[in-house]
């Protein structure tokens, strides 16, 4: 059975879950969790993302965010690529290979009505995992940002706490008191294993077409050629820089192998299907 293509648009809200490859402890050290949080903060500055909640566990992380300035795929590519390089090379390891498990899970959220429950679900993750006896003691969660107004011990001053707190009260002290009370009462719902969060009509609108069985998305094929974030953006924008040619050739060959048409590939990187044909022929000639 094919897997769903993601629904992406500016202003979309998502509950994102990203796990380590083979459930490895890729955030086993404090500095690793701190670095991931730093990269999420960079996404707020660079990509115009609004983050409402996060938690970094030993082998996965959760984000609740809104893509105000950039599409989710580009945001996640930036965050995960930078963390992968840090984990493999800059953290004292001499490691190669995949860091994250395949595709991240991106659960589309209809509107603000669901934010409170999602924030609670994310912040209570360490408690459900049995890591702490009180979830508010966990350092690598945005819960501290809410309780300490952006000055949590794990960083995260980029978290937008105001929207959530105003749902309780316009008065900060009352809002904070009600926030703490709300967080203590778990609704027991699994907000992670559902395709989208909203009413029935939203679920129908959000239902994307499905890829052919076993076919990888074009963005993922391009990422797997080894491009960095800047090169990824340039290729998607149709740049003709010669240094990008090897990536385009590899991308074209793999995409055709996955069953995409030359027209589909060309539309994805802003080239004509004739240009794609030349790239494919270049790959065949090099064999």
TrEMBL record:
Against InterPro entries, the record matches this protein to: Transposase_17 (IPR002686), Transposase_17_sf (IPR036515)
Entry's Gene Ontology BP terms:
DNA transposition
Q: Which GO terms describe its molecular function?
A: DNA binding; transposase activity
A Pfam family hit: Y1_Tnp
Q: Which residues form the Transposase IS200-like domain?
A: 9-125
Query: Know the name of this protein?
Result: Transposase and inactivated derivatives-like protein
Per the UniProt record, the source organism is Syntrophomonas wolfei subsp. wolfei (strain DSM 2245B / Goettingen)
Its lineage opens with:
Bacteria, Bacillati, Bacillota, Clostridia, Eubacteriales
């Amino acid at each position: 059975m094919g897997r769903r293509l993601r629904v992406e648009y500016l202003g979309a809200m998502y509950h994102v879950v990203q796990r380590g490859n083979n459930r490895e402890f890729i955030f086993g050290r404090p500095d690793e969790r701190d670095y991931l949080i730093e990269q999420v903060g960079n996404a707020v500055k660079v990509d115009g993302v609004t983050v409402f909640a996060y938690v970094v566990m030993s082998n996965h992380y959760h984000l609740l965010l809104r893509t105000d300035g950039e599409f989710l795929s580009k945001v996640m590519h930036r965050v995960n690529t930078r963390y992968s390089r840090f984990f493999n090379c800059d953290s004292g390891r001499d490691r190669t290979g995949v860091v994250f498990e395949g595709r991240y899970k991106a659960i589309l959220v209809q509107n603000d009505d669901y934010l409170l429950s999602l924030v609670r679900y994310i912040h209570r993750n360490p408690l459900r995992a049995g890591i702490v006896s009180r979830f508010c003691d966990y350092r690598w969660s945005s819960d501290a940002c809410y309780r300490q107004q952006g000055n949590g011990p794990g960083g995260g001053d980029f978290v937008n706490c105001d929207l959530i707190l105003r749902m309780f009260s316009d008065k900060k002290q009352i809002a904070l008191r009600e926030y703490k009370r709300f967080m203590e009462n778990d609704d027991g719902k699994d907000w992670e294993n559902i395709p989208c969060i909203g009413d029935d009509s939203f679920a129908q609108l959000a239902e994307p077409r499905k890829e052919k069985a076993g076919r990888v998305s074009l963005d993922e094929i391009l990422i797997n050629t080894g491009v960095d974030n800047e090169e990824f953006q340039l290729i998607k924008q149709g740049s003709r820089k010669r240094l990008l040619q090897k990536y385009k050739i590899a991308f074209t060959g793999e995409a055709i192998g996955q069953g995409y048409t030359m027209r589909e590939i060309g539309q994805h990187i802003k080239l004509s299907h004739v240009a794609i044909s030349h790239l494919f022929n270049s790959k065949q000639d090099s064999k």
